[in-house]
Amino acid sequence: GEGVVGEYPLLHEGGYKNYFCPHGPMELARAPSPELYSHGEGEGCFAYQSCTDILTISIEGFLQFVPGSICEPQGNVFDVRVAPFHMDRNPDFFLLIIFW
Q1: Which residues does residue 95 pair with via DSSP β-bridges, in sequence order?
Q2: Alpha-carbon distance 100 to 88, whole Å?
Q3: What's the pTM value of the predicted model, to 2 decimals?
């Protein structure tokens, strides 16, 4: 789908550069400079976490990737399946997705 709450990490060996664009990837792709949406850099893996206030929930789906970047694609978009997993409501529990 179109990003996890607007997060668009550019993954590279040894780290990442994150872009935040709440209006979707096409806005980021049309931006005069993607740096307008720069949201930090990091070493190692990129991690995203979230939580839910629903009593119980099962989550599954796909993460969508594009070789290169949204602004300069170097290949076709491809999906990576996320197998179903169950979450219980707990304010100390967060969904954590890590890419490396």
Answers
A1: 50
A2: 26
A3: 0.65
Render pLDDT for 31-81 as a digit per residue (tens, 0 to 9).
888 888 888 899 998 887 766 666 667 778 888 888 988 888 899 989 999
**Which three-class secondary structure state does DSSP give residue 34?**
helix
Cβ atoms within 10 Å of 50's Cβ, excluding its own: 12
Using CA atoms, how far residue 31 sits from 6, 19, 36, 100, in Å, is 15, 12, 8, 27
The DSSP letter of residue 24 is -
Both tokens of 100, joined, read 């490396």
Task: Tell me how long the chain is.
Answer: 100
- Two tokens at 13? 């060996």
Q: Which long-range contacts (CB under 8 A, 24 or more apart) does 21-30 make?
A: 25/70, 28/70, 28/71, 29/70, 29/71
- Sign of the Cα pseudo-torsion (26, 30, 33, 36, in order): negative
